[in-house]
Structures are given as C-alpha cells and as structure tokens.
Amino acid sequence: MLDKLNPLNAQAQGTDAADLEKVAPAADLPDPEYVKKATKAAVEFESFFIQNMLHQMRESAKTLAPDDSPAKDPVNSDMLDMADKLLAGHMAGQRAFGVADAILKQLLPHGLNKG
Q: Cβ of 73: how many Cβ atoms within 10 Å?
C-alpha cells in the first residue's frame, strides 16, 4: 500500500492525485505536477552525479596506469563515456546512491517521500 503512495514509484505506477490525498490533507498536498517534476529533476541530478563520479574514476585510473596500459588508449574513450552515461542513468533510475531521495526529502512533505 505504501509503495503505491510513494511519489518515487508513482511515476512508474501511474499514481494519481486521489492516491496522494490519502497520504496528506489537501491543504498540505503539493501539486501532482510539482511532485512529478521534482522527482524527474532529482533523478536526473543523481544521474549527472553518478556519471561525473564514473568519469573522474576513469580519469584517475588513466593517470595511475603505466604508459603502455590499454587504459591510456584514447581510441575507446567516447564509447566509454557513452557507457558511463547509460550506466549512470540506469543506476539513478534505481535510486542506487540515494541522492534523489535526499533531494526529494527536502522538497516534498514528509508523507510523500521515503524519509
């Protein structure tokens, strides 16, 4: 039941305003469009955060690798960047790091977030 009312799952399950009203009174209930936009923005930020972290990790590995290492070969760097972006998007969609949850905890009323 609580999973249906969680705005983080609402996007995937199609939860509407009637379900959200069960969690909080109508006066305290944010606009469902706001919840949708806030959730999307939080997930996109988490994706950006993870992608940036993966990029920095790869750059560190290149710096520490010996000169004859395949890690320093620039041929595949574009494909690796695309793979990092896809991986980051997938991980953010699963809330792997909890960054989106932390952002939503600040933006949404207590009953509408995982917190």
A: 11
* Per-residue pLDDT tens digits for 3-29: 544 555 544 444 455 554 555 455 567
Burial class, 35, CB count within 10 angstroms (exposed 0-12 / middle 13-18 / buried 19+): buried
Instruction: Domain ranges for the chain, please list them.
Output: 2-112
Taking Cα atoms as reference points, which of 84, 92, 115, 87 lies closest to residue 102?
Answer: 115
Alpha-carbon span 15 to 4, nearest angstrom: 7
- The answer to whether 46 and 102 are in contact (CB under 8 A) is no
Enumerate residues 6+ apart whose C-beta is below 8 A from 46: 91, 92, 95, 97, 99, 100, 103
Q: Which of 26, 5, 1 is nearest to 112 (CA)?
A: 5
DSSP 14: T
Q: Under a CB-based contact definition with an 8 Å cutoff, are residues 47 and 89 in contact?
A: yes
The answer to whether 89 touches 31, Cβ cutoff 8 Å, is: no
* HSE value, Cβ hemisphere, 13 Å, CA-based, for 70: 2
pTM above 0.90, yes or no: no
